[in-house]
Amino acid sequence: MQDLANIFIKSIFIDNMVFAYFLGMCSYLAVSKTVKTSVGLGLAVVFVLGITVPVNYTLENYVLKEGALTWLNEGFSTVDLSFLTFILFIAVIASMVQLVEMIVEKFSPALYSSLGIFLPLIAVNCAILGASLFMQERAYGTIGEATVFGLGSGIGWFLAIVGIAAIREKIRYSNVPPALRGLGITFIITGLMGIAFMSFMGIKLEDSKKEVSTEEFVQVENNETKIN
Amino acid sequence: MSDKKEALFSKKNLKLVKDPLDDNNPITVQVLGICSALAITVQLKPAVVMALSTFFVMCTANVVVSLMRNMIPSRIRIIIQLVVIATLVILVDQTLKAFVYDVSKELSVFVGLIITNCIIMGRLEAFALANNPWKSFMDGFGNSLGYALPLIVVAFFRELLGAGTLFGYPVIEKLGLYELGYENNGMMILPPMALVTCGVYIWIQRMRNKKLIEEN
User: Fold this and answer.
1) ipTM value greater than 0.85
2) Chains A and B: how many Cβ contacts under 8 Å?
3) Is the Cα dihedral A131, A133, A138, A140 positive or negative?
C-alpha cells in the first residue's frame, strides 16, 4: 500500500507532467484561457490516462517485451517485439479515446457537450503517450502500480492546468508589457509555478519519520501556548 | 487544385519556407510542438539531434500523406496520419539507437513523443491533406526549420549560462572567465528555466515584430 501511495504522490507533485517533463504543453497553453474549460479537459485527461496506462502495461508485459509471449508457446521465448511499442501504444490510445468518446456521448450527453471538442484532442496530447512510455521505461512491477501512476500523472496535469487558468483569468486586469501579452507571460508564469513545484522534491515519503516530526511539531506548539 | 505548371522555387513556394521562420513560427506563434521543444534544451547536442529527427519525420510524413491525400477517407484520417508518423518515428528511433546510443538515452521518451508532436499532426491536417507533394515538402521543410530555430537558440543559452559549455566544449573555461570570478548559473539547467528562457525569446521576437502582439 505504501508503495502505491508513494507512486501516487510522486507522480502528482514531484514528477509532475507539466512542470518536470513539459508534457501536454500544447493543450495546456491552448485551453487554459478559462477555468471552466480547463476543468473539463483536465478531467478528460485523468480519465483517459487512468484507462490507457494499465491497458498499455498489459500489452507491454504480455506481448511486447522480450520473452513476453512465452505464455502462448515455449518457442516464443526469444521473440522481442519492443520495436513495435510506439505504433501499438498510439493505436491503443487513439482507439481508447474514440471508445471513451462514444460511451460518454451515449450515457452522458451533458458531459459530452462540454468535453466534446477536447476528447479528440487528447489522442494527440503528449501527456498520454508520455505516461505510457514512462511506464515502460520505469518498469513498474504490477498493474496496480501502473494504474496509480496513470491516475496520479493525470491529477498532476489537472492541477497544473486549473492553476494556470485561474492565474490567466486574473492577469487580464494587470498591465503586462504589450509584447509579452498572451503566450509570453503564460510561459513565464508556468516557469514560476514550476519553481514552486520543485520545492516538493524534498518530500521524503517515509511514514515513521513523518509521525516523529508531527509529534515534535505538536510539542513545540504546546510549549508555545504554555508560554503565552 | 490548379494544374498550372509552377516553377519549383517560385515566390509562393519560397514563402512556404520563409514564413514559419518568423511570422508564423510553429513554436512561438502557432503554439505547436512545445512539449518536446522545452524538455530537451538543456544542452545543444540533444537539441540538434531532436531538430534533425523532427526534420526527417516532418518532411517525409508531409510528402507521404500528400501523395495519399485523395485515397484517405476523412473519417479515419487521424489514425492513418498517426500510423504514417509512428512508422517514421520507429525508423528514427532505431537509427538513433544504432548510431548515437548515448544521445538516444538522453532523449529517452522524447523521440517517441515526436509521434504526438502536434506540429507534425497540425501541418498534415492543415497543409499536406490539401496540397501537392512538392508544396507539402516545402512546407515541412520550412516548419521544421522554424521548429529548430527557437530550440537551438534556447539550448544555446541554457548550456552556455548553465554549464559553461557548447556541445560539451568548455567555452567559458577556455576564455578564462572563471579566474575573473565568473560562476555558472546552475538554475538555468533546471526545467522551469526552459519556460522562462522561451518566454523571453517570445518577448524579444514580438518586440521586433509588432503585428504578432496579442490582445491579452
Assistant:
1) no
2) 146
3) positive
